[in-house]
Amino acid sequence: MVVGHDRRYQAEQFAAAAAEVLAGNGFKVYLTDGPTPTPVISYAVVDKKAAAAINITASHNPYTDNGFKVRDENGGAIDPEGLIRIESNIPESEDEVKRTPLKDAIDTGAIVMFDAAPAYITHIETLIDLQPIKDAGLRVMVDPMWGNGAGWFPKLIGGGATEVFEIHQDRNPNFPEMARPEPIPPNVDVGLKATLEYKADVLLINDGDADRLGIGDEKGQFVNQLTVYALLAYYLLEIRGMRGPIVKTLSTTTMLEKLGKIYDVPVYNTGVGFKYVAPKMIETDAIIGGEESGGYAFRGNVPERDGILAGLYFLDFMVKMNKKPSELLEVLFDKVGAHYYDRIDTPFKGDRAEKIHRIETADPDTIGGLKVTALETVDGYKFVLEDGGWLLIRFSGTEPIIRVYCETTYQDRVDAILQDGLKIAGIDDGDM
After folding, report:
1. Alpha carbon distances (Å) from 361 to 2, 293, 364, 424
2. For the segment 357-407, what is each residue's pLDDT rounded down to a tens digit?
């Protein structure tokens, strides 16, 4: 088993406790010797030919949280049925837990401390030639959001004509200057400002465990994660000439369907979360899989979100096209048309079942002035609109929050679509 952790409060102690329990139950454990990005931990499963991994991280969540992630023998997310099986084995009492103290387990070789970075870097160099990026003379701003991605881009692409600048690179589990280490506005605002101050060509943003990627352009503007997904898919299809399926959650962009038609590749929609994306990627040998939160996975790598590799691919896209991010966006929109996206997360009061009933029986003819052509209920309630855009209403699985998302080809209708979505969900000013 591989065990790793992030930079949050007591994460290393939490990881050590998990390793002690595994050792006490007869497993050999490879325990990372420091905070390690989630994609690096996931690759270590494959490199060590391990059965699975435990990763102590709360990813993009607020500083008050921590989390327990598990990965399968492929380094990918375990499907929902597997998670239920794991949870069913949690004992009622700590007295039932077998555990070998860390020092004793290290002394006997049951736990081995290791650095997961070298094997991952060797692997990455088989997927992308880093030298052209190093030689390109780019000015790259990086915001690792106080997390595990700190130091990785300087290590991978520094030392040549390209200059790499980092902010928020130290360990600070309070995550100052942002509400949480999630690479979306307003958490990215300080990084966008720094991009302009340093006259950088691009801003790369990783979340707390570096499995997600956010992008800021050379003008200090945030490039939303749906657009980044379409750009990465276009890069693989057009620049690298790859062919194969695209896997996407239903909450991400319809630009992928348009690219699928242009390049004659299938596009599969899944429920929201990599626990659905990863199995579908393996099943279909997809070239890319992704979700609305900014997580992207790639063929040849583990079927897991990788914010480091995604950032390197984006830089390679810039180098190969000799264009800055805003110019790449123009190329994409020339291909598939302009698309606009936004999202509202809001707490709600009252009975959840009543809200669900209200949504299921709403049956609107139009949303935001656009005709509704279909309703999909794979994961939440997705109203498909006449322009190919959509409105999605989903409930959080862990807290009383409703998420309302939309994508449309009409920039001036985004707010109207979202407001209609809130009305359909029965959200009024008293709820927000």
Report:
1. 47, 28, 9, 9
2. 999 999 999 999 999 999 999 889 999 999 999 999 998 766 778 999 999
Which residue range(s) make up the domain with 406? 340-424
Residue in the structure block whose two tokens are 């239920």: 84
Amino acid at 269: N
Domain annotation covers residue 381? yes
Give CA–CA dist 122/321, Å, rounded.
26
Give the Cα separation of 289 and 291 in Å (integer).
7
- pTM, 2 dp: 0.94
Query: What 8-state DSSP symbol labels residue 238?
Result: I
Residue with tokens 């309703």: 375
Number of H helices, E strands in the chain: 15, 20
Last residue within a domain, chosen from 60, 91, 120: 120
Q: Which residue has the tokens 């929201």?
A: 272
Tell me whether the omega of the peptide bond preceding residue 186 falls within 30 degrees of 0, making it cis: yes
The 8-class DSSP code of residue 400 comes to: S
Q: What CATH number is associated with residue 88? A: 3.40.120.10
Q: What is the pLDDT of residues 77-101, one digit of tens each?
A: 888 889 899 999 999 999 989 999 9
Looking at 72, 99, 120, the residue that finishes a domain is 120
Q: Which residues pair with 164 in a beta bridge?
A: 140
Q: How far apart are CA 14 and CA 10, in angstroms?
A: 6
Nearest residue to 282 (alpha-carbon basis) of 72, 134, 60:
72
**Residues forming beta bridges with residue 393, ordered by sequence position:** 381, 404
Q: For the chain, what is the domain count?
A: 2
